[in-house]
Amino acid sequence: MENIVDALSFPFVQNALIAGLLVSMASGIIGSLIVVNRMVFLAGGIAHTAYGGIGLAVFLGLPIFLGASIFAVLSALIISLITLKHRERMDTFIGLMWAVGMAVGVVLIDLTPGYNADFMSYLFGSILAVSRNDLYFMGGLLASIIFIITFWYRDILAVSYDSEYATLRGINVRFFYTLILVLSALTVVVAIKVVGLILVIALLTIPVYIAEKLSNTLYSMMILSGLFSSIFTLIGLWFSYQYDIASGASIILVSALSLFLFLGFNKIR
Known about the structure:
Layout: H1 2-7, H2 11-36, H3 40-60, H4 64-85, H5 90-111, H6 119-124, H7 132-151, H8 153-161, H9 163-168, H10 173-195, H11 200-214, H12 218-243, H13 247-268
Helix pairs in contact: 2-7, 2-10, 2-11, 2-12, 3-4, 3-5, 3-10, 4-5, 4-10, 7-10, 8-10, 10-11, 11-12, 11-13, 12-13
C-alpha cells in the first residue's frame, strides 16, 4: 500500500490515472453507441487506419494525437459515405482501409530519418507517457461527447435503434450516423494511448456488454459502461504497477476476467 501511495506522488502516475478515467468515460459512452449501432467492425477499421496518421505525424514532426486524429476522422467520413450507400460491400471497404492505413503508417515511419520508434507503445499503449497536453485533448473530447449526447440524445437514440423511423420523423440520419463515427474515431485515437491499437476494441466493447445486460435504456447503459470501464482501468493500472507488466494488456485482461465472472454468475443464478 505504501508503494502505491509513493507512486501517486509522481506526476506521470497522476497523469496516467487521470487519462485512464477520462478515456474510460469517453469509451463507455461511445462504446455504447458503437455496440447498439453494430459498428464494432467499423471502429476496428478506424483504429487500424489511424496508424497511418501516427506515421504521418512522425514523418512531418507533428504531435501524434493531431496526425492520428486527422487520419481517423478522414477515414470515418469516408466509411460513413461508403457504408450508407453500399452496405453490401462494407466489409471489403473496411478491410481495404484497415490494411492501407497500417501500410501507410509503417512506410512513413520507415522513411523518417533517425527515428527509432517503440512500436509496442502504439500497439499496446503507453499510458505512463501521457503528457499534460494529452490530458487537455482527452478532457476536451469527453466534454464535447457529453455535450453532444445531452443536446441530441433523442435524435441519436432514434437513429441508433430505428433509422427508418428516424427518417420518417425528419431526423437527418446521415448527419448523426457520421457524427457517431467521427466521435468514435476520436475516442479510438485517445484510447490508443491507454491500451494501444490492438486492444482498443476490447476497451470499447467489454464494459458495454456487461452494462447492456444490466440496463434498460441507452442513457443508463452509457453511465454503467463508463463506470465499469473506469473500474477496470484503475484495477488494471494497479496490477500493471504492482507486477511490472504492460498497462494496456493488464486493463484488458481485468476487463475480460470481469466479463467471464459476470457471465458465470449470471448462468449460476
